Amino acid sequence: MYLDCYILENLFINYIIINCTTYIAKIYTKKIRQICGAVIGTIYSVMYVYKELEIFFTLPAKFIFFILIVLICFNINSKKEFIKILFNFYLVNIFISGSTYFIIYFTGISHMTISFFIICSYISCKLLKKIVNNFRLLKHIDDITKKISIGILDKNIECIALLDSGNLLQDPISKNDVVIVKASLLENFLPKNCDFDKMDILNIQSITENLEPRISSRVRLIPYKHVGDNNAGMILGIKADYLDVDNKKISNIILGVSNFNDEGYSAILNPRILY
User: What residue ranges carry the coiled-coil annotation (predicted)?
Assistant: First the structure.
C-alpha cells in the first residue's frame, strides 16, 4: 500500500472512531477538534512505518498519545468526565477495530482496498450506535422537568423542558433526536403568527424561502403520527448547535417547532438524549 493511501485510510478511520465516541458519550465537540484528533492519530500511525521511531510504540507512549487525542478532541470539565470519555474512546476503538477485522475475515477478501477498510469501519460505527441505542431504550424513564439551554447561531435559549417517555421522534434521514419546542422560543429566527401545528411540505417550503440563509440551511422535515390517527403530519425542524442538559453539551439535536400551550414547560425532550 502506498504511503498516501495509508495516511488517507487512517485519517478517515480515526475520524469515524472519534465521531462515534462523541455520539456514544453524548459529548458536544466541534468538527475541527475531531479533525485535529484524527490528524494526530494519523501522524502516530505513520510512525509505525519508520523503525527508528520504535520508542513511540511502547505501551506508555501509546497511552500518552491516546490521552493526547482525547484532550484535543473533547472539552474536559472534570476528572470524572475525562475518565468517562477516555473509557468510551477506548471501547469504541476496540469495537470498531475488532468488528472491522471480523468483517474482513468473514468476507474472505485477501486484497483490501482503502475504500473497503473505511466502509467496514463505517458499518462497525453504525452497528455500535444501534446497539447503544437499544440498551438506552430498555431503561425506564419517569416524566420529569429539567432546565435546559439550546445553542443555535451563537445564541443560548434557556427554558424548562418536560422529559416525556412518549416522545420518540427522530429525523428520518440523520436519525438525530428531536426536541419539541414552543415556537415563541425561536421568535428571533422564525416568522410570527404561523400555525406550526398544521404543517405540510408546501407550508414548510414557503416558510423556508422567507428565512435567512443561515437558518434555512438548518431546516428539516419531521414526519409524525398520533396514536389512533391514520393521517401523518409534518413538523418544521431546525438543527441546533447543541443542547445543554445537566451541564453536558449534546450535539446532533433537531428542534421540532410547535404551538403547544403549556405554562409548566416550553420543550419536550426525547428520553434517549440523556442516556
Answer: none
Range of the domain at 154: 144-274
Number of domains in the chain: 2
Residues 81 and 112 in one domain: yes
Cβ-based neighbours of 26, under 8 Å, separated by 6 or more = 248, 250, 273, 274, 275
What integer pLDDT is reported at residue 141 of this predicted model?
44
Joined together, the cell numbers standing for residue 150 give 439550546
Decide: helix, strand or coil at residue 80: helix
Question: For residues 235 and 197, what is the distance between their CA atoms, to the nearest angstrom?
Answer: 7
Spans of the chain, pLDDT less than 70: 1-2, 107-115, 136-143, 225-232
Q: What is the CATH number of the domain that holds 172?
A: 2.40.70
Please enumerate in sequence order all residues whose Cβ is within 8 A of that of 250, keeping only pairs 6 or more positions apart, or say none. Answer: 26, 27, 28, 242, 243, 244, 273
State whether 152 and 133 are in the same domain.
no
CA distance 182 to 238: 12
